[in-house]
Amino acid sequence: MAKVIMTCGNICCGKTTYARALSEKTGAVILSIDEITLALFPEGAGALHDVYVLRAEQYLLGLSLQVLSAGIDVILDWGLWTRAQRDRLRQFYQRHGVAAELHYLRPSREEWENRIQKRNAQPTAGAYYVDEGLKEKAGRLFEEPFPDEVTVVIGDRTGYD
Fold first, then answer.
1. Are 37 and 52 within 8 A, CB to CB?
2. What global pTM score does this model have?
3. 16-37 pLDDT tens trace
4. Topology (CATH) of 3-154
5. What's the sign of the alpha-carbon dihedral 39, 56, 7, 147?
6. What is the CA radius of gyration of the chain?
């Protein structure tokens, strides 16, 4: 039976890099929120960004069930910043009889800062530029998962202390 792997971590912690490596290794299909929103709104969606992200999530949840029913694993390349969002997705997949794993990426503070600097120095079409406002928002909104939520931990530090 195919499973879903949900990536979790703060902005610019390596989720997409991890998802790509895991996909190459396993053949799983990656479904990325950022990829869709940046493709549709390359110059930004402004005040409607969060509305569009929710719509993209709903679309990708339906698509994930189609891929899973074909016997192919799915990797959700999403941030899953809040426990409520993680719980909602686990419940969604549980209702559909799909095994779900949470892979939590938690680099050290130094590694996180280095990743942000590297991304901002070499902007790409598939990634958000992380200015101080976005960095502050991410730091404020991200809720580190509790041990009972996590299947796999990638990284060596808890939080960004």
1. yes
2. 0.87
3. 999 999 999 999 999 999 899 8
4. Rossmann fold (3.40.50)
5. positive
6. 15
Tens digit of pLDDT for each residue in 97-113? 999 999 999 988 888 88
Query: Where do the structural domains in the chain lie, given as residue ranges?
Result: 3-154
Residue given tokens 């101080």 in the structure block? 132
74-77 sheet: strands from edge to edge: 29-32, 74-77, 3-8, 99-105, 152-154
Which DSSP string corresponds to 46-77?
GGGHHHHHHHHHHHHHHHHHHHHHTT--EEEE
Residue 127 contacts residue 11 (beta carbons within 8 Å) = no
Looking at the chain, how many residues does it have?
A: 161
Structure token digits, residue 104: 């939590």
Question: Which two three-digit tokens encode residue 3?
Answer: 């499973």
Cα 66 to Cα 2, 51, 71, distances in angstroms:
11, 24, 9
How far is C-alpha 43 from the chain's CA centre?
A: 21
DSSP tally for the chain: helices H, then strands E: 6, 5
